[in-house]
Amino acid sequence: MSMGLITILMFTVLLLLLTTGLPVAFVIGSIGIIFSYFLWGTGGLSMMIYPTYGLMNVFILSAIPLFVFMGLILQKSGIADEMFEAIYKWAGGLRGGLGAGTVIVCAIIASMVGISGAATVTMGLIALPAMLKRNYSKYLATGTIQAGGALGLLIPPSIPFLVYAYIARESAAKLFASGLLPGMLLAGMYIIYILVRSYLQPNLAPALPVEERVTFKEKLVCLRALILPTLIILSVIGCVIFGITTIIEASVIGAIGSMIAAAARKKLSWKIIQESLHKSATVTAMVMWIALAAVCFGAIYTGLGASELVQSALESLGLGKWGVLIFMQISFFFLGMFLDDTAIMFLTIPLYLPIVKSLGFDPIWFGTLFVINMQMAFITPPYGLNLFYMKGVVPPSISMADLYRSVIPFIIIQALGLAIVMMVPDIALWLPRVLFGK
Amino acid sequence: MKKLRLLVKAIDSVSLGIGRLTSYTMLILLVTSSIEIVCRYFFNNPTTWAYEFGQMTFGCYFLLVGAMTLKNREHVGMDVFIEKLSPRNRAWMNVATFFFTALFCFVLIWKGWEFAWPSIKRLEHSTSVWGPPIYFYKFMLPFGCFLLFMQALSNFIKDLCFALSGNQLLEEEQ
User: Fold this and answer.
1) Contact B140, B64 (CB under 8 A)
2) Is the terminal CB of chain B with fewer CB neighbours within 10 Å at N or C?
3) How far apart are CA A116 and CA A123, in angstroms?
4) CB distance A49–B37 less than 8 Å?
5) What is the tens place of the pLDDT at every residue in A218-236?
6) Residue among A197, A198, A116 at smallest CA distance from A151
7) Angstroms from A322 CA to nearest CA on chain B
8) Exposed/middle/buried for residue A196 (C-beta within 10 Å: 0-12, 13-18, 19+)
9) Which range (A285-294, A392-401, B25-34, B145-154) has the least confidence?
10) How far apart are CA A10 and CA B3, in angstroms?
């Protein structure tokens, strides 16, 4: 059987098995094993162990549970409520203001936690009822929260960047820095979209009635609660992108800082710490077992000579430099409809990266494009994770079909943002260049 | 039936117990990393052990938590399609796919053990200044996969019982 045929067969079986609901990690791992056995017998299976053991020795990924822990503690100490309260008071008087503010809060919470599910669920519980009560359109309200939650992938500290840094052997600090501006760009685009649309169609996102607005002094008072958490997040981001500490050290500082912040609000209890510890362990296990299965799969795939195959296949298409890059982005988008970001990274980046480098593109920039693309995957039906998190917290009157409809404008904006960062690489590369030099 | 229930309960509590216990090691990681930060930045005298300790702790951490995550059914999968099935058909589907999970675990236990055994035989230690035992660490891979396999087995038994009888084996699963 030819290599191309085996590859196609492998991915078809993989997608089929995914539809059974078997966890992604076991799908990838077992398919890799089965193919390896039929190609090389049991000898081929030994190839899997070295990369697996290699994965166990990746210290940088231990920042994952620490960042998740930091975010959970801050979130459980009620910071999301207070942030939303502040936004409500500051921006509520504007048409679409609550929606625009939600984008900001979502972006902050999501970047803290590093996983977008937590932000989507939290804001779904806090902001959604408030927006619906003010007669916001359900599409606009739910779409905003889902898209805002996905920003956490891009804004540091971010787990996909950590994993990419490991796979691509690039500096995680540079990657963090490169994600910051594109993240803000996307947040800005969402806000503009919401404000313009609600200006044109006032019934979509009405302003707060005058009697519910508050005085300037009250507006200032509500900011006080945000000082400490904001300080923590900024110092963590600062420590990393200014190269003051390593990422792990920054995550340690963040985790301890978040406990101090929670204690300062008298919200820190053993129960909260315990819950956050269990949850961060679960999230880490989720990511790392997929990574483990994917490196096994990858070892076999590399053994098959897949990189040469992909390279020659791409060359034979005759797409040119940019054509290849766009082709890769499209493949990310389609894979993103079925697989989760860790799996896609481990399966594709080792194959794509040599090509990207040989075409003269910057691997840091490519990583940023990848993560922007993964944000789309998070809200793209049928397998957008945020859609499911959202479905878990919306009132029964909002159906899955409503949610599918709600994300469409945001997917278009994300695609636009992706195109902009592709055309103007400096949006991603300017900050790392300024901070770290060339 | 009673023995089966006992077995499933035993596996579940081992997975949960080890998983919970392991999740606390993150606190230890916090403490050791803090010591390292203080030693390095304030006394300009980094420890010889903190890096390796962190590395090994994390390796054990994710391997040992896998079974708990499976027990809570929190490993991500694409459940859009099977959500449309009735609960019993969903259980049948899980029963059918158990083979793949088992295969994955089996091969990793087998190959992981082959990899760890020479190291265990000579009680291999790391060549660093600190020199922690490596054999123990290499053993974690097959061990973590073994825990995962046992949990998969427990889930399989639960799903099979439900698929056959329509009743949950354990009350808590309702």
Assistant:
1) yes
2) C
3) 11
4) no
5) 777 777 777 877 788 788 8
6) A116
7) 32
8) exposed
9) A392-401
10) 40
